[in-house]
Amino acid sequence: MARCQPVPFLPMPDPDIAAGAPSDLMDKVVGLCKRRGFIFQSAEIYGGFRSTYDYGPLGVNLLRNVKNAWWESMVQRRDDVVGLDAAILSPPAVWEASGHLSNFTDPLVDCRNCHQRWREDKIEGVCPNCGSTEFTPARAFNLMFKTHAGPLEDEGAVAYLRPETAQGMFINFANVLQTTRKKPPFGIAQVGKSFRNEITPQNFVFRTREFEQMEMEFFVPPSEADRWFQYWLDERYSWYTDLGIPTDQLRLRHHDPDELSHYSAATADVEFLFPWGWDELEGIANRTDFDLRAHSAASGERLEYFDQATNERYFPYVIEPAAGATRTMMAFLLSAYREDEVGGEARTVLQLHPRLAPYQVAVLPLSKKETLEPLAREVLASLQPHFMCDYDVTQSIGKRYRRQDEVGTPWCVTVDFDSLDDGAVTVRDRDTTEQVRVPVGELLAEVRRRMDLA
Ligand code: GAP
Question: pTM for the whole thing?
Answer without folding.
Answer: 0.93
